[in-house]
Amino acid sequence: MAYNSTVADSAASLYASSDFQSFSWLEQQWVAWYVWIGNPVIATGLMSFLIHEIVYFGRSIPWIIIDSMPYFRKWKLQPNKIPTPEEQWQCTKQVLFSHFTIELPLIWLFHPTAEALGMQTYQVPFPSLKTMAPQVFLFFFFEDFFHFVAHQALHTGVLYKHIHKIHHKYSAPFGLAAEYAHPAEVFILGAGTILGPLIYCYFTQNLHIITVYVWIVLRLFQAIDAHSGYDFPWSLHNIVPFWSGAEHHDFHHMAFTNNFSTSFRWWDRIFGTDDKYRAYRARVKAQKAAMKNASKEQLVQLEQKLMAEVEAEGIRAEAEAEARGHFGSKAKVQ
User: Fold this and answer.
1) What does the alpha-carbon distance between residue 170 and residue 167 come to, in Å, rounded to a whole number?
2) Can you tell me which residues the record assigns to a coiled coil (predicted)?
């Protein structure tokens, strides 16, 4: 977008004494956006909402395509559970409902809150990658621990029965289901995503909203990929062992319990909330080794049998959690 004298005059109130020609192309588009909208609160709110929707559904589309292609079943963690078009559509409607009832109303508070805490929003130039990288890592670290604690809370009593149960509709998740949740859960777990940047900004007074957007985009990629249901040889956890990924989170949906964190594996390992997961993986490995001369079909049947056993245990664990969700009830399902 070219910058003529009219645009420069319109930008004067926000970008006084700025040399537009010294800005990068992306920074120039940033300035143009705020000038075009004319109101920083509306410009930030609208941009935040559009980024989230475009990235969320844009990143989900490749997984919808992959789910429709039998070639990729060899990497599907639960290959007998492929989401139908109707399930994908029902999931999309619930996700959009949460986005428009929780995210959209609250997002207009983001700009004034961010500015009150000292965050840069419309300002240019952007911080360097050297500045942004450690900030984004800190946000990953904070959100992962927040999610680890809050997610376990959502598996208890009333919180599970009336809130988190919706997210566990799919024992074999798929990309779109990353934010398939009760609006209250979207608010609770979403707090972990945004509180990290806000707290960091409050204490350091050194954060630009572009860094927050980079963090949110990466977080969306992580959440959608973790729910994809696929484990490829090039999946990140096969390169970075402490990364969570779909292989880690898929077990949580299948078994109902264990693996409560999002991005990293260390909290589950430290607090022992991956014991069933590790036992399951060890059992699969041992039985495959014992059947090293078996056919491919026999190995597939073995893995399906072990998955069915884990899922049956998960159904019982879910029933117990739901039974405890009755107010004043201490009933347990045997």
Assistant:
1) 7
2) 277-312
DSSP 102: I
Distance CA 127, CA 201 (A): 14
What's the angle, vertex CA 192, arms to CA 191 and CA 193, rounded to 5? Answer: 90
Write b or e for each residue in 70-88: b if 16 or more Cβ atoms lie within 10 A of its Cβ, otherwise e.
eebeebbbbbebbbeeebb
Give bridge partners of residue 264 from the DSSP assignment.
243
Query: What share of residues in the chain are helix, strand, coil (percent, to 5)?
Result: 70, 0, 30
What is d(CA 43, CA 24) in angstroms, rounded to the nearest whole number? 20
Distance CA 30, CA 24 (A): 10
CA pair distance 31, 36, nearest whole angstrom: 8
Dist. CA 80–CA 97, nearest whole Å: 29
Q: Retrieve residue 1's tokens.
A: 């977008």
Scored b (16 or more CB within 10 A) or e, 268-284 reads beeeebbebbeebeeeb
Counted residue by residue, the chain has a size of 334
- DSSP 8-state code for residue 99: I
| pLDDT digits (tens), the chain, 334 positions | 444 444 445 545 777 777 777 889 999 999 999 989 888 999 999 999 999 999 999 999 999 999 999 999 999 999 989 999 999 999 999 999 989 988 899 898 889 999 999 999 999 999 999 999 999 999 999 999 999 999 999 999 899 999 999 999 999 999 999 999 999 999 999 999 999 999 999 999 999 999 999 999 999 999 999 999 999 999 999 999 999 999 999 999 999 989 999 999 999 999 999 999 999 999 988 887 887 777 778 777 888 888 888 888 888 888 888 887 654 443 333 2
Distance CA 82, CA 68 (A): 8
